[in-house]
Design brief:
Blueprint lengths: L8 E4 L2 E4 L10 H5 L2 E3 L2 E6 L2 E5 L1 H14 L8 H14 L5 E9 L13 E8 L9 H4 L1 E5 L19 H14 L4 E5 L5 E4 L3 E6 L2 E4 L10 H12 L4 E3 L6 H4 L2 E6 L3 E8 L2 E2 L7 H14 L10 E3 L8
Helix pairs in contact: 2-3
Length: about 325
């Protein structure tokens, strides 16, 4: 599932290196203490060539994530965006997934990380539908996880930190073990939070509901995109606490994230959502999202950054 096929080059600390040379020492701080932050960004093929989706917003969040953990990134969001464009170009890709990582490297070993060097890597590769090829049209089966999202003042959820994804792994592994494709976590108060790697939206009476940031959710770029597109289409969106049982009586439920894009949920805890198929509002948002991302409709919000692909890459 979503196997990783190596490309030619990876960007490391301002220079391109071979894929196989992108290595760190086993005693790097990040290995023992998960001291890293990262992003996931998609580049789509458009009629005018590859275009990276909302790269400026992603790179800003990357720097914000690092700042929360007192990690100084020696590049601006604009410079990192330029590096992402160059990375896609030198690898000759038309569409891909881009993964920037900021990590604490090799140095003193102990919980305190202030004396360890900060390194920045950026890789890209071709990556298909995160939740399976049929997920976008047919929807997925999800469960409410026995694992809650992080409680306030434990780990900062506004930072896209690798440490937070240990919680995500528990949610995802439990879901897969029990025959589901994804798990939905509740927050510390018992309200709906998000999926293991996606924000969640509920449709009820032609209105979209989504948990607020205080519900231990990542401030998702695709989440923001969905809210903006819904506004464009005249669909009301309300950020509000969502009780668990709303998932069982919703007209539609869908997940949103860079990897998952906009994926409908057809059942929760084996209870069909609505008709048990992708709903009309989810489908409408999908159509609008992909039309813009793939350059088939005017980029009215300035979300696409064009890439000039290098031919005959060696």
């Amino acid at each position: 599932m979503n196997s990783l096929v190596p490309t030619e080059k990876i960007w490391r600390n301002g220079a391109f290196i071979r894929w196989e040379d992108a290595r760190i020492h086993v005693l790097s701080h990040v290995v023992s203490y998960a001291s890293s932050v990262f992003e996931g960004i998609r580049c789509y093929e458009t009629p005018r060539g590859p275009a990276i989706f909302r790269v400026d917003r992603h790179m800003r969040r990357l720097i914000d994530s690092a700042r929360i953990y007192r990690m100084e990134v020696p590049w601006t969001a604009e410079q990192l965006g330029d590096a992402a464009r160059e990375l896609v170009a030198v690898n000759g890709l038309r569409s891909c997934y881009i993964r920037p990582i900021v990590l604490r490297g090799y140095g003193p070993l102990g919980v305190y990380s202030g004396n360890n060097p900060v390194e920045v890597f950026m890789a890209c590769w071709e990556w298909g539908a995160y939740l399976g090829e049929g997920a976008l049209a047919e929807g997925i089966d999800a469960c409410v996880s026995s694992w809650n999202r992080l409680a306030p003042n434990t780990l900062p959820v506004l930072s896209k930190s690798s440490a937070n994804y240990m919680n995500s792994q528990l949610i995802k592994m439990e879901a897969i073990a029990n025959g589901y494709q994804e798990g939905i976590a509740l927050d510390a108060m018992g309200n709906v939070s998000e999926g293991s790697g996606e924000n969640i939206f509920v449709v009820r009476d032609s209105r979209i509901l989504t948990p607020p940031l205080a519900a231990s959710v990542l401030e998702g770029i695709t989440r923001d995109t969905v809210i903006q597109l819904a506004s464009d289409l005249g669909i009301p969106v309300l950020e509000t606490p969502i009780p668990r049982e709303m998932l069982y009586i919703a007209d539609e439920v869908f997940l949103a994230g860079t990897a998952a894009e906009i994926s409908p949920v057809r059942s929760v805890d084996r209870i069909p959502v609505g008709s048990g198929a992708r709903g009309p509002i989810t489908e409408k948002l999908q159509r609008e999202f992909f039309a813009i991302a793939r350059g088939l409709r005017a980029d009215r919000h300035g979300w696409l950054t064009a890439v000039e692909v290098c031919e005959n890459v060696v």
